[in-house]
Amino acid sequence: MSPLPSRRQPEELIDLSVSRRCHVVGIGGPGMSPLASLLAARGHQVSGSDMRDSEVIEILRHEGVAVSLGHSATAVHGADVVTFSTAIPASNSELVEAGTRGIPLRHRSGLLASLCAITESIGVAGTHGKTTTTALLTHILVTAGRDPSCIVGGQVGGMPVGARHGNGPLFVLECDESDGTLDVLPLENLIITNIDVDHLDYFGSFEQVQLCFVDAAQRTSGYVVANADDLLSRPVIEALAAQKRLRTFGRASASDVRIDAVTPTTDGIEISLHIDGQNTMCVSPLRGDHNAMNIAAAVAMATGLGVDANTACSAVASFSGVARRFTERGDFGGALLIDDYAHLPAEIEAAIAAASSHPSRTGRTIAVFQPNRFHRIAAMADSYADCFGEADIVVVTDVYASGTAFIEGVTGELVVNAIRATHPAAHVVWAPTRQDIVDFVAETIQSGDVCISMGCGDIETFPDDLQKAGQ
């Protein structure tokens, strides 16, 4: 593989072992609010700004964080460090004022790196399954009495803004590769759930995506957990071959945590695991083979860190999951409605498979999909051709921008065309607006069907919209 291209470079660490005045620009964002919460819980004086109020901001205020609405140059006065996300432009008045006054500016990744430097960090990276695996590993470690801290990119019970402050030295954090964050974190331990094609607008090529994960694994000093079944993760496994700190998971016979069987049940799944030579049964309220893999990854790291296998599997049974990860949202005329964050082909295929194996399904599987990001669909619309195979009916709506610039000619119909070209007999419907989706599904759905709506945009409100239409 060729060397890493010039991407995000490590910033000078901020010493967070002593109290600091930290200002967070865009504090209500899903990446910034948990960082602010954890900083405040660790005894730092935290302030922040955002353009609008929200439930998350109210929670932060109750945690002692001073939040102002709107951006003002004076908001950074007296700060020891100002932190921001990739979404904040360099022209932001608070960033400009901090630069003028010589106040240290750090990208979110720089503050996360500074937290990693004073903790025993465990990063969870990969294309699919990061959020669930991060939350589950944290749950296992809490159950085992390790009392970890955590930052996770989703809504989890007991972590209202995606953060947990523990008194133990362990720090579990979800690591995003899309903006270079994974490149700069000084991680001690690392889980790589899997590697797939995504974020080519940032990386330039899939080879560089793989190299990012290889580089992150080689920089760690502790355990690296990798997916033995994922051919695209082979470079990571090969880079650490014969090192005792490498732990693998999957169905492959040589896996340190081997999945021998996954059985759907009325309440979830039962997983037969072979953990370092010991046979163990894990019962989980989650569904699908993909969640069995997430569970195996979390157990592989936990047991590597010394948690007893039975303790780890006992914790799995009481983990209820993450919001928008195969969340049952009620019914419509006797049909089950499920909401899922799946937005990449492998995730969609796994979510549809889980829906089709749901014990309440006696009819058809209806898949509703909202494509995400114009540049993603422009680059890889054709890769969605085969992932809807288990669905009886597929409904595709228009692209949710997620802050990306509109590209002429790039719509959700590109996904529709890709499916039809490869599978001419597939029942695929182009429904560009939300009302189009609601109208079609309301007229089509029958008792015993399972309707799973997927995407990482505002498609999460579709089950509510459908139920309102039926009132």
TrEMBL record:
Domain (Mur ligase C-terminal): residue spans on this chain:
324-457
One GO cellular component, as annotated: cytoplasm
Q: What positions does the domain Mur ligase central occupy?
A: 124-302
State whether keyword Ligase applies.
yes
Which BP terms in the Gene Ontology apply to this protein? Answer: peptidoglycan biosynthetic process
Query: In which compartments does the protein localize?
Result: Cytoplasm
Annotated EC: 6.3.2.8
Just give the chief location class.
cytoplasm
Residue ranges of the Mur ligase N-terminal catalytic domain? 22-117
Keyword Transcription regulation applies? no
> Which protein, by its recorded name, is this?
UDP-N-acetylmuramate--L-alanine ligase
To which species is this protein native? freshwater metagenome
